[in-house]
Design goal:
Blueprint lengths: L8 E4 L2 E4 L4 E2 L15 H10 L1 E2 L16 H16 L2 H15 L19 E10 L2 E14 L2 E12 L4 E14 L2 E10 L3 E14 L2 E10 L5 E10 L2 E3 L2 E13 L3 E14 L3 E12 L6 E13 L1
Parallel strand pairs: 3-4
Antiparallel strand pairs: 1-2, 5-6, 5-17, 6-7, 7-8, 8-9, 9-10, 10-11, 11-12, 12-14, 13-14, 14-15, 15-16, 16-17
Length: 306
């Protein structure tokens, strides 16, 4: 065992290990309790090999492992998200996505009569600047994508004050059963966890100036968990071309005990049914009882439909 310096490969009884992209990778079977109190030797390792979990050895040396396929994908995603933190690059990416998706439903050699409803991509993007950092929320959907199945994808990212990037994505495939009740297959992409399929149901309705949505899914794993997702929005008209926006979106995940809950509040205005701006507060609770932890990100938001 020896000190790992950049671009240096070593061989141990556990295999080949090396340092990549300024981050320490460690064998998955090694359990490192947090927080770690770094020794002087560990600090030297961290400064040379980059930020990461340090495996403490007798002489303060560290071992890193070859990155897996998911590690490489995660690095690419983080790099992309850092690029999208630039507003110009994000706007360009959204424009390209709209240009690609919007015409898909109408690609036909026959004379085109564009329907008022039905196929065609539509979406919404929101930007939030709060006390904790920046966040984006992108939603793209297509109705009746195939055999009556509707498609929705959502991608949420965050960058905190220390430039640490978080991300969460999902894909929803839903099929209408009766009225506003749909069968739902949701696939979530969770940072640090991976791909999680979640079957369930959702119900959506609207009356007057109120829109309501609720879904219930279950994670079919060895330790199944349930998740409830609800959204309630009130959008009365203020003047011609302007509406008030009062909205709350809540998610609760639970198994034998409460895992986490989030509540996102928005108060603002909608202009021309396209542009939104106002005040925002995202709350989160994890754990329960004496172990309950609370965090929030409050600030201003802006967004638009496309």
């Amino acid at each position: 065992m020896k000190l790992i310096t950049p671009n240096e490969i070593i061989t141990t009884h556990e295999g080949n290990y090396w340092r990549t992209d300024g981050r320490l990778y460690i064998p998955e079977e090694k359990e490192v309790e947090e927080p770690i109190v770094l020794s002087p030797e560990n600090i030297i390792v961290q400064e040379i090999a980059g930020y990461g979990k340090v495996v403490k050895e007798k002489r303060g040396l560290a071992v890193v492992r070859e990155p897996t396929f998911l590690d490489k994908v995660r690095e690419e995603v983080v790099g992309t998200l850092r690029n999208l933190a630039n507003p110009r690059k994000l706007a360009y990416a959204v424009g390209v996505a709209c240009a690609i998706l919007a015409p898909v439903a109408y690609a036909d050699d026959s004379p085109v009569e564009i329907p008022q409803e039905g196929l065609g991509a539509k979406g919404h993007i929101e930007f939030l600047a709060g006390n904790v950092g920046l966040a984006t929320d992108l939603i793209v959907s297509m109705d009746d994508l195939l055999l009556g199945i509707d498609f929705t994808t959502r991608y949420k990212t965050g960058v905190d004050c220390e430039n640490q990037v978080s991300h969460f994505g999902l894909i929803d495939l839903n099929y209408n059963i009766v009225d506003g009740l749909d069968a739902l297959l949701e696939v979530q992409f969770i940072q640090g966890v991976g791909v999680v399929p979640r079957p369930g149901f959702w119900y959506a309705t609207a009356f007057d100036d109120v829109n309501m949505f609720i879904s219930a899914t279950v994670g079919p794993t060895t330790n199944p968990d349930g998740e409830l997702h609800a959204l309630l929005a009130y959008k009365p008209e203020l003047t011609e071309g302007a509406k008030l926006l009062l909205q709350m979106e809540a998610v609760t995940n639970f198994a034998k005990e409460h895992n986490f809950s989030t509540q996102d509040f928005r108060i603002g205005v909608i202009l021309d049914d396209t542009y939104m701006l106002g005040a925002a507060a995202n709350l989160k609770e994890t754990g329960m009882g004496n172990g309950l932890e609370f965090s929030y990100n409050a600030g201003v938001f802006g967004g638009f439909n496309f």
